[in-house]
Amino acid sequence: MKFEILAKPDFPLIKLQMNSGESIRAESGAMVAMSPEIKMETKAQGGIFASAKRALFSGESFFQNTFTSEGSGELFLTSATQGDLEHRTLQNEELILSRGAYVAGSTGLVIDSKWGGFKGFFAGEGLFFLKVSGSGDLFFSSFGAIHAVDVDGMYIVDTGHIVGFEPSLEYHLDKVGGLKSLFLSGEGLVAKFSGKGKLYLQTRNQNSFASWANAWRRVQRSTSGGD
To answer: Is 29 inside any structural domain?
Structure first.
């Protein structure tokens, strides 16, 4: 199976050239277009309980689609959010992704929710991450462009800009400065990573964008009157 990511990083699209018998599993709604040689099967991967846990805790769709080519076919996939797409070949290893980052991957990969501890709750990022393990091709997305960092020692990241990281990296939450900075700087809490491994960042913060957009949202004023 050959692939190409088109139109990076603003409006990326995954183009897959698939041979007969090759398959890929994708999030619900990821398919953009496909040739008639590609057949789709929808199911709850890993069973009802595993699918419900991923959907509830890790922001993934309950049902996933498996696309299998019955000849030489072409398939286009994309992410739900406006942002970059990245490819990673896993070789009997793991990658930890933030909520909703998974787009598609080889059928041999195992996708499960991972407990992030209460530190994730206080960061406003949720209690769970997504753990992808095994061997095969993995495609994941971000909000904004993706920037990869090879960490060797310590690295500090705003929690809203984390896309994924290798499990060899450990992290804990901290504030950038004192209490005044925590509440008035607009930075909030940061994740301090330590160890050696790859870290994926996104150039935009979804929570910050939502707050900015909400300020421009039209609010209907209520009127009151009496007889």
So the answer is: yes
**pLDDT score of 56:** 46
Parallel, antiparallel, or unpaired for β 31-34 and 38-43? unpaired
Residue 225 forms part of a structural domain: no
Q: Residue 131 has what DSSP assignment?
A: E
C-alpha distances in angstroms, 42 versus 64, 81, 177, 225? 6, 22, 48, 53
194: domain CATH number is: 3.60.160.10
CA distance 168 to 155: 13
Which residue type occupies 54? R
User: Distance (Å, rounded) from C-alpha 18 to C-alpha 142?
Assistant: 25
Tell me the residue range of the domain where 38 lies. 2-211
How distant, in Å, are the alpha carbons of 39, 67, 85 from that of 73?
10, 10, 22
Between the CA of residue 166 and those of 26, 57, 81, 99, 119, what are the distances in Å? 22, 20, 23, 15, 18
pLDDT digits (tens, 9 = 90+) for 160-205: 899 999 999 998 877 765 554 444 444 567 889 999 999 999 998 7
Map residue 130 onto helix, strand or coil.
strand
Using only the alpha carbons of the chain, give its radius of gyration.
Answer: 20
Neighbour-count burial of 92, counting CB atoms closer than 10 A to its CB (0-12 exposed, 13-18 middle, 19+ buried): exposed
**Residue 220 maps to a domain:** no
If one counts the domains in the chain, the total is 1
Assess if residue 227 is contained within a domain: no
* Residues 85-142 pLDDT 10s: 999 999 999 999 988 899 999 999 988 876 555 454 444 444 458 889 999 999 999 9
